[in-house]
Amino acid sequence: MSTLSMDEFEDLSSFVYRKTGIRFESKKIYFISKRVQKRMDFLEIGTVAEYIRYLRFSDPAGAEFQNLVDLLTINETYFFRDFPQLQAFGDHCLEEVVKKKEACGDQKIRIWSAPCSTGEEPYTLGIILHAMLDNVRHWDIEILASDIDRNVLNTARTGQYARRSLRDVPPEYLKAYFTHSGNGTYHISERINKLIRFEHLNLSSKEAVRARTGFDFIFCRNLLIYFDDVSRKQLVDHFYMALNPGGFLFLGSSESVSRISSAYRMKRAGAHLVYYKQ
After folding, report:
1. Residues of the chain with CATH 1.10.155
2. Residue spans in the chain of domains classed CATH 3.40.50.150
3. C-alpha to C-alpha distances, 53 to 8, 45, 154, nearest whole angstrom
């Protein structure tokens, strides 16, 4: 396998950026090269230049570009990832939103997990809601789980996971919300599965993102680090419009809104500082 030249890397990464908002740094050149070569071998294309021309002029429906994106996006995740942040959500933010809704007779809770990867995050959120809400059956709950990668969405829809993905699940939740399949895998409870709506979505599509509104919580953890400043601001601003007043935005531990947008407010939720829409 030959590594992309720097010119080829810049050409391809710029093409990906324009379509997805994801910017790959030059240190990723070997990572990109391996995945591009895999697609070239499949299509029997001899050079990177030919492959880029193929993406630009012979892929009108974007099927090959989607295949490439599926290989380039990293989807390592697991249930109850960043547990302290989830505690802030369940013990403080959820309680605050529920009290406001109960006061005005609103029984809807809407959450957006973007990107949802193989489903561990949205299913985790569903478990937390089911475990912590009083009279959970009286609530109209929907968790939108979106991702640009169709392969991980297909995996997520099955609701089946290896033990490694469940390594941080509290034992009482493992017993209550999973069934051991007997072949080393676990299946998520139908009570949780039915709360999730999986959807293929490119977050760089302004029209698609603007069409999603009315959320009480948005989780977008560990994605902004792959975007440049312009794409980050556009997405964070879209999320602000998608949130209900009093709604919360959760980012990854190394990500911050304060340097991107002045629209959000901050408050303490237990040991965490969280972003919300006033």
Report:
1. 6-72
2. 83-276
3. 12, 11, 29
Model confidence pLDDT, tens digit, residues 254-275: 899 988 999 999 999 988 889 9
**pTM higher than 0.70:** yes
Cα 227 from Cα 70, distance rounded (Å) = 17
Structure tokens given for 114: 């973007």
Q: Percent helix, strand, coil in the chain (nearest 5)? A: 50, 20, 30
6-72 topology per CATH: Chemotaxis Receptor Methyltransferase Cher; domain 1 (1.10.155)
CATH superfamily membership of 83-276: Vaccinia Virus protein VP39 (3.40.50.150)
d(CA 148, CA 277): 26
Span 167-189, pLDDT tens digits: 999 999 999 999 998 788 999 99
pLDDT digits (tens, 9 = 90+) for 106-119: 999 999 999 999 99
